[in-house]
Amino acid sequence: MNRLARSLGAGECAELIRSTGSLVVLTGAGLSTAAGIPDFRGPQGLYATRRYNPDLVFSVDHFRRDPLLFYQFTEDFMGLARDIRPTYTHRALSAFEDCGFIDGVITQNIDALHHQAGSRRVIELHGSYWSASCTSCSKGDVSGATFDWWVRAMRSSSRSPIVCCPFCGGVIKPDVVFFGEAVKDFEEAAAMVSRCDLLLVLGSSLAVYPAAVLPKMASGTVVVVNQGEVMLPPGRGRYFINEELNEYFQAVAEELGVAVP
Q1: pTM, 2 dp
Q2: Which pLDDT tens digit goes with each residue over 220-229?
Q3: Which of 62, 90, 114, 126 is the catalytic position?
Q4: Buried b / exposed e along 112-137 (16+ C-beta atoms within 10 A)
Q5: CATH for 1-37+86-126+183-261 (3.60.40.10, 3.30.9.10, 3.40.50.1220, 3.30.470.30)
Q6: Is 126 one of the catalytic residues?
């Protein structure tokens, strides 16, 4: 952490949340790893342990030619993630929204854990497995797809693990943003950040674009909670907390008097 960066205690963070007129949250991989999903690119991630090449796994052109590699990755990912549950921080953000503190959550993650925790206004910049579409027709679209749904669909498919449309036989593609595709709802996310009074950045090193641009668009206070280096320089109204997310937000929730289920 840069020695010029300013930190913020849980009580001070709670007071900012309590007094702000508009609060938006940006979340990254740190929330997923805290839930037990290994960072894809980390030493225990699927890219390293199974030797998947992300440039091929998430290439939309390669998927259109042959979706098998992506589905092999998905099969492994589901094996890791199907028993994962939202963390305390996920649940805290949902509880804060219920109390009227949070206007919306913007996430870089594709695991749908914010939805599972009960958050309602969520922008998934990189999409998620929560929904899927048939690449050949409009009848095979899927919404609310749980990890268990994907496991069952992959196992029961005649082209297992590739999931096919029951109407036309086309390949079902999760609504995950691939390389070569535009991120989802970025303009809406940018508008939310630019007009908010307080932006919380949780579990993100801000190294992945275009999400990394969003904190620079904020005209209000920015509070970053992340263990490790953050690619955002210190500045006026910017605070950096190098602490474990769940422990920090348990303290924040206690200061706010919010019960987190």
Answers
A1: 0.91
A2: 999 999 998 9
A3: 126
A4: bbbbbbebeebbbbbbbbbbbbbbee
A5: 3.40.50.1220
A6: yes
